[in-house]
Amino acid sequence: MVDASDRHLPSRAREILQHYLENPLTADSAEGISEWRLLDDYVQRRVEETRHALEWLVDRGLLVRTVSRATPPVYRLNRGTVAEAERLIHDLEPPPGHTE
Question: Is 0.85 topped by the overall pTM?
């Protein structure tokens, strides 16, 4: 049972418990839980990286962000900077046959 010494829940334990409370019929192994936790962590990192990249592009005028109350921001190419965007991509492309 939970006692006074258990009031400080480790963050991973909190995340797992929250998942079980939101999905009370869930039953999974440690490996299965690790997989969905890793997937959640991976997706969250990717979302943060994508937001950062989008902000970089918007700050430089290469993309335009449209904000609406009803939907999340939408991004589109700034047609006025197509030549600059193409030049940037071309200048940063690795030479043919180059592998990392």
Answer: no
